[in-house]
Amino acid sequence: MIVSRGFRGRRRKGPPDRVPPGQYLTDDFPVLSAGPTPHTPLEDWTFSIHGGAEPLRWSWEELHALPSETVTVDIHCVTRWSKLDTVWEGVSVDTLLEAVEHDASFVVAFCDGGYTTNLPLEDVTDGKAWVAFGYGGEPLEPEHGGPARLLVPHLYFWKSAKWVRGLSLRDDDEPGFWETNGYHLRGDPWLEQRYWGD
Amino acid sequence: MPGAPWLAAEVAGTVEETPRVRTLTLGAPGWPGHHAGQHLDVRLTAEDGYQAQRSYSIASAPEDGVQLTVERLDDGEVSPYLVDEAREGDRIEIRGPIGRYFVWEASDPTPLLLVAGGSGVVPLMSMTRHRAAAGGRAPVKLVYSSRRLEDVIYRSELEELAARGDGFEVVHTLTREQPEGWTGYSRRIDPELLGEVAWPAAERPRVYVCGSTRFVDAAADGLITLGYEPQSIRTERFGATGS
């Protein structure tokens, strides 16, 4: 063990069953993104699912007409902050996929600004993922991914793609943006799957 | 492929850059080298085994080993140690380098625009130093926003690099307080300021912006107003808790 002389730390670790290894708790909501914040007008906004028997598309109003859920979840960023009990409103990915006939094993989420991220289908089904448009009882702000972002709280938060515009259903696991730039293909915070090879 | 290992690193020297910012030179046998703009993870271990990890941008050129420049965040956990406590001979652990997107190679001749807010200058300094060390020929403009003159990190080194007259220019703006006789800009980055100092969008420069979220959004939105392609703008942001 390499001890750093004089280091004590602040020990904001939180409950060990809720804060994964190497993370610390924050009350803030830091922002990370690789490019400018896009601003798509809601009248032009759509959410699409490609790769099934038929392509599907919802307008902003159509998405809001679907049953939505309010969920309280813990989120974990690969840059090491974790935030507990965040409250989101959105449509479950299960609800969206119900409308699609497919036999895909993976999805790629695609976004305004060109960002993509890849996920196994089983990480976005069975109540594990949402297309979220509300945060803390308010519309989701652009800097946090509004008008809508993917929410996949059990994986590192880069998987919860901001400014999401749709999902591509795929047979293979096609690495997305951060996944081709050094970050882990799956990103499970409890296994500390931060970078390539973790 | 196994993940990158944690490496023992010894503090080989420190430089006080500003009252809140310090540079640490690290000796790290086994360090695989880095590209300009990348970051690394730091892990500190207390006597009782308690550990804390954070990511920091690498300040040095790839040609010059590993230096970190760290700003103290008052409610931080790792940064106060690195800025105030660590001294020559102390040991920390590092892992990396990390990130393959916010990187730049000196062999790239495309005009380069670097926009820095506060300690966001650190990865951009790695690029600037890399250009100087490798003899890069890309014309470079660094637009650097600080609160006060005494908060400007690397001020004399930037002056020396600009004085070489080899295509590197630095433009400062001081947003909070200006010394007497200050002839530079004295306001936050806005489209008009960027329009006066940045490369015309038609030259299709590469752009790297680093700073706080508010700074990065203002700079990136300003460049888009000037006709820059959103895809040409690479950003890195640090939040209030990026400690």
Could you explain the architecture of this structure?
The complex is a heterodimer of chains A (198) and B (243). In chain A, 8% of the residues lie in helices and 30% in strands. Chain A contains three helices and eleven strands. In chain A, strands 1, 4, 5, 8, 9 and 10 form a six-stranded mixed β-sheet that branches. In chain A, a hairpin with a 4-residue loop joins strand 4 and strand 5. The longest helix of chain A is centred in the N-terminal third of the chain and has 6 residues. Chain B is α/β, with parallel strands linked by helices. Chain B has two domains: 92 residues, Beta Barrel (Elongation Factor Tu (Ef-tu), domain 3), CATH 2.40.30.10; 127 residues, Rossmann fold. Chain B is built from five helices and eleven strands, in the order E-E-E-E-E-H-E-E-H-E-H-E-H-E-H-E. The model of chain B has no long low-confidence stretch (mean pLDDT 95). Chains A and B meet through helix 3 of A and strand 4, strand 6, helix 5 and strand 11 of B.
Please describe the topology of this protein.
The complex is a heterodimer of chains A (198) and B (243).
Chain A: E1 24-25, E2 46-50, E3 56-59, H1 60-65, E4 69-76, E5 81-92, H2 93-97, E6 106-111, E7 116-120, E8 130-135, E9 138-139, E10 149-151, E11 164-170, H3 177-180
Parallel strand pairs in A: 1-5, 2-11
Antiparallel strand pairs in A: 2-3, 4-5, 5-8, 6-7, 6-11, 8-9, 8-10
Chain B: E1 7-18, E2 21-27, E3 39-45, E4 51-57, E5 66-71, H1 79-85, E6 91-98, E7 112-117, H2 121-134, E8 140-146, H3 155-163, E9 168-174, H4 191-197, E10 206-212, H5 213-225, E11 233-238
Parallel strand pairs in B: 7-8, 7-10, 8-9, 10-11
Antiparallel strand pairs in B: 1-2, 1-6, 2-5, 3-4, 3-6
Helix pairs in contact in B: 4-5
